[in-house]
């Protein structure tokens, strides 16, 4: 996830360089804008294929593939002077991010125990933010080539480190015809790959009971062949799909997606003397701190309470931001001395958005679908997430230029208020339950 965070963000601290005369690849402002957002197109294209391939060749295999893909994209960036090749590399990076976000929640949900599943999935947000912090602490201070080499170093760490991890036991049970006769379960555990994987993950503890429950769960879920239509097969499936997509839309059609990218524009309007790099780094550190807190509360506080509180909090801080910006731009009141309001609102957005929506989005995605559709559902959800983020990032400057920046935050407020109402009405509690019980 740190690799994905760095891959998504590396363009941001280089925007001025890429538009200037010293750019290693000469580009116009419009081309730089597309370079920032084309990663979303790569994500949209790759999400559903990533889900299908995760069921065909394995969750672990797909995640390992993302490493060489990412490394190849960085090498293209280092050794090219063509913006076309740079766009291709950025598109490939979108594919890498799609694989990671589609498969990682499924993999973690399937290898973890129910009492720590929320914590482990929440940690992905911590490492995502660490990747972003890495970009904003190195990007402004290194030359272009050294900076890209520094970014690619994460791939070289990830590939050997993740190679030691086993495949998901859920995947092996899905692929292998494991006998359901519990009387010979002990001998079967030693022979099949699923039991070896589960035994490795549990530190060679007695897994007989857990393995039997896992087999029973997967056997029932695998009675139907997985397809996209299975996401809507029953009322329960349709409800689960609706819940996850609502959470996804609220998460990505929100200021949480744009605040890191457009922090400079926002704070320039407020006439602050703090440099844009300092502001962005500050918000990144706040988000990292909030994601660490989220790890400790993910399984200690109910998912439903965290998600609802987070959505209400982001709605409140979006409303404060919209009000401040409207008064600042559309009225004659001099409010520059109250600039701390927009600063605190931005910090509040980072905190409330991360503890809940940010940290639990992947948890909800992983928990609400059965094993035979979990990877496919992850692909569909990630496609919606990528498309929503792309629309959000591209529409932000358009709305700013034609209607006023306060309209962005007004729309964010409407979306989050609507999301909070829907989440309150339909989101069930899943904390502490096994995937079979959910």
From TrEMBL:
Main location: membrane
Superkingdom: Eukaryota
Secreted as UniProt keyword: no
InterPro entries assigned to the protein according to its UniProt record, in alphabetical order: MFS_dom (IPR020846), MFS_sugar_transport-like (IPR005828), MFS_trans_sf (IPR036259), MFS_Trehalose_Transporter (IPR050549), Sugar_transporter_CS (IPR005829)
Keyword Nucleotide-binding applies: no
Membrane topology: Multi-pass membrane protein
Compartments in which it is found: Cell membrane
Keywords associated with the record: Cell membrane, Membrane, Sugar transport, Transmembrane, Transmembrane helix, Transport
Transmembrane stretches, start-end: none
GO CC terms of this entry: plasma membrane
Listed GO MF terms: transmembrane transporter activity
Domain Major facilitator superfamily (MFS) profile: start-end pairs: 1-431
Protein name as annotated: MFS domain-containing protein
Originating species: Rhodnius prolixus (Triatomid bug)
